Amino acid sequence: MAADMRLPTIRKPVSLTASAFDRKDLVVPGDIITSDTGFMRGHGTYVDEEKLTASVAGEVQRVDKLICVRPLKTRFNGEVGDVVVGRITEVQQKRWKVETNSRLDSVLLLSAVNLPGGELRRRSAEDELTMREYLQEGDLISAEVQSVFSDGALSLHTRSLKYGKLGQGVLVQLSPSLIKRQKTHFHNLPCGASIILGNNGFVWLYPTPEQQEEEAGGFYTSLEPVSLSDREVISRLRNCLLALAAHKVLLYDTSVLYCYESSVHHQVKDILKPEVMEEIVMLTQQKLLEQEG
Amino acid sequence: MAAVQVSEAEKVYILHGIRDDLRVDGRGCEDYRHMEIETDVVSNTDGSAKVTLGHTAVLVGIKAEIGKPRPMVPDEGYLEFFVDCSANATPEFEGRGGEELGTELSNTLYKVFNNKHSVDLNSLCISAGEHCWVLYVDVLLLQCDGNLYDAISVAIKAALFNTKIPRVHISADDEGGKEIELSDDPYDCMRLNVENVPCIVTLCKVGHRHVVDATLQEKACSVASLIISVTHKGMVTCTRKVGGGSLDPESIFEMTEAGKRVGKALHAPLMKLLQQEESLGKKHQKVGFLG
């Protein structure tokens, strides 16, 4: 019950690999990339007195004659096929606006969702009027990017049984650059919870459903109380995710699982203390290095 | 306060968790988040403190000026509060957006400190009826992540502890009036006794239970909260109910008892930390804002 009060100290992110200064391809805004005029300039660069200069902080990528700088901290730039977790912000005529941590709200068209019952039919006027019964403002969904509009807004779809409205669980909001691109973003972790690592930085933790439901569309959410043991696992995972994000560790199912295992000795609420975070992340990075080597 | 949107299913999850005494981040219902306190961070004030509670960051600066005492109480000084919600915290506070919240916070602070025991106002008097010290307490909200009242009250207590009021002495000048002289020595100053300064505890009612130090998500699930300011002896100086929902008298009593218990437990570690920081002296490297 006692409050944990202390004096602040400067903490550095834990890094077991070579220090960041050794990498030669990191630039900050204003750094000159090259003076050679033979290159084409891509995103994140500009020409200043015939020298190619970076306009964002990130790493330089070169593809033949094209040079671009990929920023390290940025809003989510979606590509076709990305899995995202988003929150409905508006219900409009025939579509929903979804917040996905990008520059513009993403769009979920009424024709891009599965109707309950799995029917395939033309959407009628009645469907339009009952949109709010399916998805309301504030609801969370998992979806896939179908296409990108010309202004950069994403068009999402939930036309698969694994996407749809999300039920009980915890949302963790992190930076999109920390999520590793993998074959699948839906994992059932052996510790007893499931995780959806959205490419947009939104990570959803939820209790593993007992049997896979066959209802299409996933619009039915169970409001049964979740058991205490599942809750503890989810809270621990949440704190581990925040610890990994604070030390800029790439997130994927293996790193999250190693972090969970390293944190078992500590109480769930202690994981967010700075020194415990450092210890856990250090152990996780060691395990990841061992696994690679 | 900045509000977050929460879905119905998330609300149910949070509600059931609080009922079982296991919140989303693993805390119990009466646990605080990690708190970091530092004093003397602003050099041109007489006392200052910065408090970080989870992601909520609050900066308090205190300036002492000589003014005229209030007519009803000629032998006491007084405190003036001003809360500024900076647009740093959330874009909603841009321009005049943060004014409403700021006035609500400062009005509550006036009520909390409006009693003889919190700060010894007699020690702020210079000459009765003519001159007294006025302490201008300015609060700046840097980041908003729930539980503003608690963070502000801890920061005010730390800043008052850190306040150094220069010693004055009054002499008669040529025309028979009084002249005030500040002592030349910059270290010759008076410190305030902050033993009785209260700390505010906010209890949010979620479902049938109450939580201390609610995050923005938990706040979105609660309909009413009780703000209670408690001194180190357990004396309550002010209670206030906020929020649109209703509280029945039994739960108010329960929440008050819990608030007293939690509030009383805040003071001892805070004083210990402040004294520890003081004893580290000038050599201790301040983290300030770049940590």
Q: How would you spell out the order of helices and strands of chain B?
A: HEEEEHEEHEEEEEEHEEH
> Structural class from helices and strands of chain B?
alpha+beta
Q: Could you give a short account of the major beta sheet of chain B?
A: 6 strands, mixed
Question: Quick check: average pLDDT of chain B?
Answer: 88
The oligomerization state is: heterodimer
Instruction: Output the radius of gyration of chain A.
Output: 22 Å
Largest interface: A-B, 42 and 39 residues
Q: Percent of residues of chain B in beta strands? A: 25-35%
Protein name (chain A): Exosome complex component RRP4
Organism (chain A): Nibea albiflora (Yellow drum)
Organism (chain B): Nibea albiflora (Yellow drum)
Protein name (chain B): Exosome complex component RRP42
What does the model show?
The complex is a heterodimer of chains A (293) and B (291). Chain A is an alpha+beta fold. Chain A has helices spanning 125-129, 131-134, 228-246, 253-262, 274-292, and strands at 5-6, 26-27, 32-34, 40-41, 45-48, 51-54, 58-63, 66-71, 83-92, 95-99, 106-109, 140-148, 154-157, 164-165, 170-173, 186-188, 193-197, 202-207. Chain A is built from 5 helices and 18 strands. In chain A, a hairpin with a 4-residue loop joins strand 16 (186-188) and strand 17 (193-197). In chain A, 35% of the residues are buried. Chain B has 291 residues and is an alpha+beta fold. In chain B, 27% of the residues lie in helices and 31% in strands. Chain B has 5 helices and 14 strands. Chain B has helices at residues 8-19, 99-113, 148-162, 216-221, 249-280, and strands spanning 35-39, 47-53, 56-67, 78-85, 125-127, 131-143, 164-166, 168-172, 178-182, 189-191, 199-206, 209-212, 224-230, 236-242. In chain B, strands 1, 2, 3, 4, 5 and 6 form a 6-stranded mixed β-sheet that branches. A 4-stranded antiparallel β-sheet of chain B has the order 12-11-13-14, with helices on both faces. A two-stranded antiparallel sheet of chain B has the order 7-10. In chain B, a hairpin with a 3-residue loop joins strand 5 and strand 6 (131-143). The radius of gyration of chain B is 21 Å and the shape is elongated. The interface between A and B is large, with 42 and 39 residues. Strand 1 of chain A pairs parallel with strand 1 (35-39) of chain B.
